[in-house]
Amino acid sequence: GDRAAGPACRRPVCWASSRFVDDHHGLATGCQLVALQRRIPELHASDALLDYVQALARASRDSGQHQAGLSPRAVISLLRAAQAWAFLHGHAGVLPEDLQAVLASVVGHRLRPRDAQDARRPLEMAAALLKSVPIP
């Protein structure tokens, strides 16, 4: 249990979602939080969703609009963030909407316009990327 673990596992961590909170104290321990984090990669992502992630990455590289497209590491980060978003919203698996909700925050800093005169911000670049790829 938490008592046998080190101080970090006994330290309470604020946890916003009532689905994961101790009913009496409104807190989760550090170990409980780590256990929740370990469940994130297990949340199901369908083949169609994985194809969607790959299509977004390919479009970011092939469009000619970005200085550099999304790297394999960016794609993995995007998928993990979408899984976390889906988990926190109680979804049984990752939905395209989960991916769309986190895309700008996760990869916006990578989506820089190729043309220096292009004044679009990362959020706008992410929105344009989402519009360029059909949702499965």
Question: Gist?
Answer:
It contains six helices and two strands. α3 packs across α4, α4 (72-88) crosses α5 and α5 (96-107) runs antiparallel to α6.
Question: Helices and strands in order, then pairings?
Answer:
Layout: H1 7-10, E1 12-14, E2 27-29, H2 30-39, H3 47-62, H4 72-88, H5 96-107, H6 122-132
Antiparallel strand pairs: 1-2
Give a quick set of tags describing it.
136 residues; mainly alpha; two-stranded antiparallel ribbon; 6 helices; 2 strands; 4% strand; disordered N terminus
Provide a descriptive summary of the structure in words:
The protein has 136 residues and is mostly helical. Helices cover 51% and strands 4% of the residues. It is built from six helices and two strands; from the N terminus they run H-E-E-H-H-H-H-H. The chain has a two-stranded antiparallel sheet with strand order 1-2. Helix 5 (96-107) runs antiparallel to helix 6. The chain starts with 6 loop residues before the first helix and ends with a helix.
Strand count: 2
Radius of gyration from the alpha-carbon trace, in angstroms = 18 Å
H/E element order: HEEHHHHH
What is the averaged pLDDT score? 79
**Structural class computed from helices and strand pairing:** mainly alpha
| Poorly predicted tracts of residues | 1-5, 10-19
Outline the biggest β-sheet.
Answer: 2 strands, antiparallel
Spatial ordering of strands, largest sheet: 1-2
- Count of runs of 4 or more consecutive helical residues: 6
Shape: elongated
- The helical percent reads 40-55%
The end-to-end distance, rounded to whole angstroms, is 43 Å
| Residues in β-strands, percent | under 5%
